[in-house]
UniProtKB/TrEMBL annotation:
Protein name: DUF1611 domain-containing protein
Cross-referenced InterPro entries: DgcN-like, DgcN-like_C, DgcN-like_N, P-loop_NTPase
Positions of the D-glutamate N-acetyltransferase-like N-terminal domain: 48-126
SUPFAM superfamilies linked: P-loop containing nucleoside triphosphate hydrolases
Ranges for domain D-glutamate N-acetyltransferase-like C-terminal: 132-325
Species for this entry: Sphingomonas desiccabilis
N-terminal signal peptide: none
Amino acid sequence: MHALPAPYLLFLGDVTEPGFAKTAFGLRDWAGDRCIGEHALPNASVTTGLERLTPAEAAARGARAMVIGVANQGGVIPPGWMPELLAAIEAGLDLVAGMHRRLGEIDALREAAARHGVRLHDLRVPPADLPIATGRKRSGRRLLTVGTDCALGKKYTALAIARGLAARGVDAMFRASGQTGIMIAGQGIAIDAVIADFAAGAAELLSPDAAPEHLDVIEGQGSLFHPAYAAVSLALLHGSQPDAFVVCHQPGRQGILGTPGYPVPPIEAVIEQTVLVGRLTNPAIRCVGISLNTGGMTEQEAARVIADTGAQLGLPAADPIRGGEAFERLLDACQG
């Protein structure tokens, strides 16, 4: 469990690629009542649309923490961010981050936090004494979101499915496997911070034995087709042992994010590969639907893409954020 001090000021650093600000967008969209504004360096071109505030202004309005809303490649904290992070500490704000580079490992931040009586919260810290995976079949049901790429909607889809099924009276729970999901849910395990030998075991721990009708909706990570992140995707797939999975895709995205020369695979290839490798720990694994990120499309364009994708693949397809009848049909498939 992670009890984080709210409300938050979202820090966007110097981000120019929206996909690398997914933590800020996730908090805005799923924990908006905890977000008071945003702060960024002058050369940042990405915005959440929240009011721009300095750390001192945010603190004066009641903010209690500044959250690093960036999920950049390698989870680094660049030197250019340091003045803003120190300014937040000096304004009396805790710092919250889910980076691979931990706040508590940076001497200047640790010393400043001690002087000003604030805390540093590192969320990409796996639990101690994680087990290796057993491959043992667990009770309960599990659904995993997988993707054609990273940063295109696996978390949003899992949250929307869990919330939608819970509204129907289904015993469903969102299981966070990444920094943003943990910030939203208040609990979870950042799978990509776990030593490789223990990653599948961490995924087993994330969705333990449950009642027969209980459904864990597990947030996916990376993509089996991503040259950098496929390893964490595979560990999560094997450890989750999903009975069902939903493929997440952004129509129009041509290349793997941040990796020139690697094209986004077709949805059919993701289904085939996920079933092929997922059968190791759950021979009955199956794809139950497609989640499409149609942000930026008109209603008519989105409806056409959703209908065409569903007809082409013979599976329910929907944009969970748009909702509607298409999403209800996707929920039907997930519930069954």
